[in-house]
């Protein structure tokens, strides 16, 4: 090593830096547009709020699927638990919306920590079944525990106080969207730090090759436990946001369709680069909004068709723009 | 008598009715250049999998520097200085060699669990990664996806990843297997230049390589240790000739 020569940082190349600059510009534009929508699309704020929540939910799934390679078809378990925790908090303890989100995060995180042991063992198929099973169990438990959850009627009569005591939840969904988008932005930035950290890199080694990951000393199970718990917290907060902003929680938060949809969203947007969940959520929600107006009965047909086309054409051509994958030296 | 870098006592591994490793008592001295040879199906790779913790043994004991590691998880064995390579590449296909080596270094330095700080910006990791890339002739492909590398380069990376963990004991499972003649030279050079204080156990079919490399050879046949000795002893042993070397025209 020649003295005084600049050492290229691990994973850094000149083309990589050029790419990074371009990406930063795009990213800033994206978030500016997202916040500008508050003013520019005042009549679509409720839809935008749903998009932000679904985007956060999909971001959560991306953390385990895109970074650690854990396939889950029961991610709604954490979303649902978060939604009920926030709802119950608002109903019985305190009406502060942010406290409700904290309750959602903690409850879902604890559930994540407990169920992580189930996904550590086994491979993809086992994990799909186990995660699916956990979500179904919780859905049924919520159905039976009528005294707590209101059963099939859901949690009714929730009221959330104004955010910071200042911003009242309005019918147009303005406060709702601003809250959801802000939470999404903060958690997104945290997720990106995590992904770029040594911890995040070791997750990628597990996704690529768990055998070798262990052979370089990565404690595979401990890493899976950690990321699964973090993802559960994210999903719980997404569920909590739904409860806080719609001021209603019903059993459909646990539904299989919710777990399947979030998987679909992530497949639409692409895994492993964090924006996939958000972009997928935009595409999914806007499409379903447009299509369900045109063909209320059959909109899933068009989503299905889009999915098939994406698989055939190759989504990488679209999402590849965002990913750093230098194959040239 | 010095404490062996790695030893096994009456190690056995059964797969149902098949005995893949049979009563192997083996000793690897500190800094040794030891080769493990044997015909196909002799149980060489199973033996390495037992040593590295990929498989749990049915019976017996494994000690690393005198410490019992028989039930220790693979990643904790690595932490204690036992590294291995794989006969079939086990690399991170989506990562670059620079990232791969960087992670191995970070993990060794105990930074693998860190959630703060950009992995790519850590100067300590970057410097050591750069040195590894250079000494394993991977500098020109450092930022390419591992999956797109030539096979020989992947084999070099396979060894470099193990060395990044600064092991005291290194298990090399057929490092030159399947490497084209033109790229073989690099692999052999790297194997010959391994740090002298590292005890190396080389599993290999190529007798030229084995006899050029090893100061001690163990012959494994049908899961059991047939004989253990210096290269000269092994070359002269009629049993080895009978089961393994055939006409013995390599020696």
List keywords for this structure.
heterodimer; A: 329 residues; mainly alpha; disordered N terminus; disordered C terminus; B: 251 residues; alpha/beta; 6-stranded mixed beta sheet; 4-stranded antiparallel beta sheet; 9 helices; 10 strands; 24% strand
Give an overview in words.
The complex is a heterodimer of chains A (329) and B (251). With 329 residues, chain A is mainly α. Helix content of chain A is 72%, strand content 0%. Chain A contains 14 helices and no strands. Chain A has helices spanning 14-40, 45-67, 76-93, 97-120, 124-144, 146-149, 174-196, 198-208, 210-215, 220-246, 256-269, 275-294, 299-313, 316-319. In chain A, helix 2 (45-67) crosses helix 11 (256-269), helix 2 packs across helix 12 (275-294) and helix 7 (174-196) crosses helix 8 (198-208). The longest helix of chain A is centred in the N-terminal third of the chain and has 27 residues, at 14-40. Chain A is globular, with a radius of gyration of 20 Å. The model of chain A is unreliable at 1-8 and 324-329 (pLDDT under 50). By secondary structure, chain B is α/β, with parallel strands linked by helices. Chain B contains nine helices and ten strands. In chain B, strands 6-7-8-3-9-10 form a six-stranded mixed beta sheet, sandwiched between helices. A four-stranded antiparallel beta sheet of chain B has the order 2-1-4-5, covered by helices on one side. In chain B, helix 3 packs across helix 4 and helix 3 (97-108) packs parallel to helix 5. The two termini of chain B are 31 Å apart. The interface between A and B is large, with 41 and 58 residues.
Q: What's the overall geometry of chain B?
A: globular
- Low-confidence regions of chain B: 247-251
- Helix/strand order of chain B, N-terminal first: EEEHEEHEHHHEHEHEEHH
The counted number of beta strands of chain A is 0
Provide the gyration radius of chain B in Å: 18 Å
Structural class of chain B: alpha/beta
Question: Nearest-angstrom radius of gyration of chain A?
Answer: 20 Å
Which structural class should the secondary elements of chain A be placed in? mainly alpha
What share of the residues of chain B does DSSP label as strand, in percent?
15-25%
Mean of the pLDDT scores of chain B? Answer: 91
Largest interface: A-B, 41 and 58 residues
Helix content of chain A: over 70%
Mean pLDDT of chain A: 87
Shape descriptor of chain A reads globular
Biggest sheet statistics of chain B: 6 strands, mixed
> What is the count of helical runs of chain B?
9
State the end-to-end CA separation of chain B: 31 Å
Low-confidence stretches of chain A: 1-8, 324-329
Proportion of residues in helical segments of chain B: 25-40%
Largest sheet properties of chain A? none
Q: Count all strands of chain B and give the number.
A: 10
């Amino acid at each position: 090593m020649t003295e005084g020569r600049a050492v290229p940082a691990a994973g850094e190349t000149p083309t990589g830096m050029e790419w990074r600059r371009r990406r930063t510009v795009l990213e800033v534009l994206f978030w500016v547009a997202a916040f500008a929508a508050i003013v520019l699309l005042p009549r679509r704020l409720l839809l935008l709020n749903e998009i932000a929540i679904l985007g956060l939910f999909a971001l959560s799934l991306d953390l385990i699927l895109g970074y650690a390679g854990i396939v889950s078809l029961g991610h709604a378990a954490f979303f649902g638990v978060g939604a009920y925790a926030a709802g119950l908090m608002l109903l019985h303890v305190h009406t502060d919306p942010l406290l409700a989100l904290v309750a959602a995060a903690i409850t879902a995180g604890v559930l994540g920590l407990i169920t992580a042991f189930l996904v550590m063992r086994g491979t993809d198929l086992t994990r799909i079944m186990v995660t699916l099973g956990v979500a179904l169990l919780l859905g049924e438990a919520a159905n039976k525990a009528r005294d707590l959850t209101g059963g099939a009627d859901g949690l009714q009569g929730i009221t959330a106080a104004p955010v910071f005591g200042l911003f009242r939840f309005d019918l147009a969904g303005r406060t709702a969207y601003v809250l959801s988008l802000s939470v999404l932005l903060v958690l997104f930035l945290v997720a990106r730090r995590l992904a770029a950290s040594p911890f995040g890199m070791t997750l990628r080694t597990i996704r690529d090759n768990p055998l070798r990951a262990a052979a370089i000393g990565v404690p595979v199970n401990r890493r899976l436990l950690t990321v699964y718990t973090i993802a559960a917290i994210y999903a719980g907060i997404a569920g909590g946001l739904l409860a806080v902003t719609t001021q209603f929680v019903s059993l459909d938060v646990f539904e299989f369709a919710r777990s399947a949809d979030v998987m679909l969203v992530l497949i639409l947007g692409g895994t492993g680069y964090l924006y996939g969940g958000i972009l997928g959520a935009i595409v999914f929600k806007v499409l379903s909004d447009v299509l369900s107006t045109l063909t209320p009965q059959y909109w899933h047909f068009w989503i299905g068709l889009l999915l098939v086309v994406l698989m055939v054409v190759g989504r990488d051509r679209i999402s590849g723009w965002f990913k750093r994958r230098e194959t040239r030296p | 008598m010095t404490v062996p870098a790695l030893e096994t006592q009456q190690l056995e591994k059964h797969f149902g009715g098949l005995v893949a490793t049979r009563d192997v008592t083996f000793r690897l001295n500190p800094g040794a250049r030891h080769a493990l040879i044997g015909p196909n199906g002799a149980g060489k790779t199973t033996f390495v999998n037992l040593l590295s913790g990929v498989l749990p043994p049915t019976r017996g004991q494994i000690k690393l520097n005198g410490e019992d590691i028989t039930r220790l998880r693979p990643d904790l064995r690595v932490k204690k200085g036992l590294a291995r390579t794989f006969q079939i590449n086990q690399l991170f296909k989506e990562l670059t060699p620079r990232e791969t080596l960087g992670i191995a270094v970070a993990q060794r330095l105990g930074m693998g669990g860190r959630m703060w700080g950009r992995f790519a910006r850590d100067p300590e990791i970057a410097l050591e990664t750069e040195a590894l890339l250079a000494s394993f002739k991977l500098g020109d492909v450092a930022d390419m996806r591992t999956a797109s590398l030539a096979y020989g380069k992947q084999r070099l990376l396979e060894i470099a990843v193990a060395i990044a963990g600064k092991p005291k004991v290194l298990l090399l499972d057929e490092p030159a297997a399947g490497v084209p003649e033109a790229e073989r030279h690099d692999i052999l050079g790297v194997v010959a230049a391994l740090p002298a204080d590292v005890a190396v156990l080389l599993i290999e079919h190529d007798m030229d390589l084995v006899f050029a490399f090893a100061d001690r050879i163990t012959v494994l046949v049908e899961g059991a240790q047939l004989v253990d000795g210096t290269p000269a002893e092994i070359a002269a042993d009629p049993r080895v000739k009978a089961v393994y070397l055939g006409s013995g025209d390599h020696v």
